[in-house]
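Researcher: Following up on the earlier apo prediction. This time include the ligand. It's pyridoxal-5'-phosphate, with the SMILES given after the sequence.
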Amino acid sequence: MASTIFLNGEFVPEEKAVVSVRTHALQYGTGCFEGIRAYYNEKEDALFIFRLEDHYKRLFLSGRVLCMDIPYSIEDLCKITVELLQKNFSKEDIYIRPFLYKSDTVIGNFSLPKLKSAISIYTVPMGRYVNTEKGVKVGVSSWTRVTDNSIPPRAKITGAYVNTALAKSDALNSGFDEAVFLDRNGHVLEGSAENLFIIRDGIAITPPVSDDILQGITRSTVMTLLEKELKVKTVERSIGRTELYQCDEMFLVGTGAEVGPVISVDGRKIANGEPGPITNKIKKLYFDAVHGNIPTYKHWSTKVSPK
Ligand SMILES: Cc1ncc(COP(=O)(O)O)c(C=O)c1O
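Model: Understood. Below is the ligand-bound prediction.
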């Protein structure tokens, strides 16, 4: 079915949602984006958008870094997204991609506040992004992550995803499912599009937001579920590479990846090479929460019924 896209303040058919090849963001990577999931709940025949407002809050924070002028409030964008999803409603999980970008068609001109901003939102059906059942094999990348002082990973800037493509592509070519980035000091940061947790002696450990990571919404969801539902404490601290080899469990988290158990790192099995017990529990809790099946966390979901 043809999909509708929000662009330049209007809902338009996909074939009309086009921009010039000269667009600044296309030429120079001057855009920032979000990835949001909506989960289909069969019992309620509705889509549940997960943490919609939080995603737009982060988009606005990303926009600050690129001096974006946004003619909408967070509330406006939430409403527009609900309307878009009603137009594109289907009984399956859907991925929503808001994109805030520099729309001028000029060569050069790198004065960010002087460049015009535009926003588009599109949706696509999306199933699993990583193998959440069997788990994933990861390899530490030889590509160093971009830094806060080069292209800030905190701001989810499109241009920074060249760094992602280099790492992920090499990981796949080397027979891994996913890459893990280190910073220039050799500390572990995150996957190509996921934050990362390890479990050591019953404690969850994840890099702090002051390291060069994206401040993930799934990361914060998982930290809440670990603490409140499993009574597992999370320590935010830098992680050394070989801690990945020695940990009891490891998992990747992200809107796309959801909760992906990691079963090996650089060809070394984690524990017995199977998803660990805390990983399995947190994965189940996460899937229940995003489907709107845990009353305590229903406030995280925005329900969209077909029109
Ligand atoms: C580099 C990077 N880290 C982490 C994440 C996970 O973030 P979130 O849980 O907000 O989707 C993403 C996902 O977009 C990402 O691109």
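Model: The CA atoms of residues 93 and 281 lie 22 Å apart.
Researcher: Noted. I'll compare it with the apo version next.
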